[in-house]
Amino acid sequence: MSLKHCQPVELGISLSYDTCAVKPPSITTTTNMSAADKLKDLPKVDSVLKEQLEGFSPDKLKKTDTSEKTALPTKEDVAAEKQAKAHLDAVEGFNAANLKHADTQEKIVLPAKEDIDAEKGQQALRQGIEAFDQNALKKTETCEKNPLPTKETIEQEKSA
């Protein structure tokens, strides 16, 4: 079986290999064509397909309601998008050459008198601890006293 090369024809109906031999009509720009010439240039249609097309009745179609599935943006959405775009355009189109030079002034804030006194006390304490001389301490002996309980306290604990 040998297959013939054919041009695809979009009719919304599946065609067999036998009907592929039909060439689509060429588009001409002449307007002086008669009705007979127009019919002669139309492609030949298979008889089965022709019968199905002639037997078609729009009354057999079911009534359906069309619903729009894409939601259009609201006025607020459009306004917000325009504002965001205007902001981005302003930032992108900013010219740094229009800026003026500014000198920064650093202000030194002095601490309050209470803060200074508290810090001096902390420094004096730290200095006293660091400069402490351990050799100035006297030698002492530690005497640990562990008094033993009396007989009366032992008896009281046993009875309790």
Commentary on this structure:
- The chain is an all-alpha fold and 160 residues long.
- It is 38% helix and 0% strand.
- The protein is elongated and about 140 Å long.
Ordered list of secondary-structure elements with their pairings:
Layout: H1 35-41, H2 47-54, H3 75-92, H4 113-130, H5 151-159
Key structural traits:
mainly alpha; actin monomer binding; Beta-thymosin_sf; cytoplasm; cytoskeleton; Beta-thymosin; 38% helix; 160 residues
In short, what is this structure?
The chain has helices spanning 35-41, 47-54, 75-92, 113-130, 151-159. It is mostly helical. It is elongated.
Give the number of helices: 5
Structural class: mainly alpha
Query: What's the main sheet like?
Result: none
Kindly estimate the percentage of residues that lie in beta strands according to DSSP.
under 5%
Q: Output mean pLDDT.
A: 80
The portion of residues assigned to helices is: 25-40%
User: How would you spell out the order of helices and strands?
Assistant: HHHHH
- Low-confidence runs (pLDDT<50, min 5 residues)? none
**Overall form:** elongated
The number of E-state strands comes to 0
CA-CA gap between termini: 118 Å
Rounded to an integer in angstroms, the radius of gyration calculated over CA atoms is 53 Å
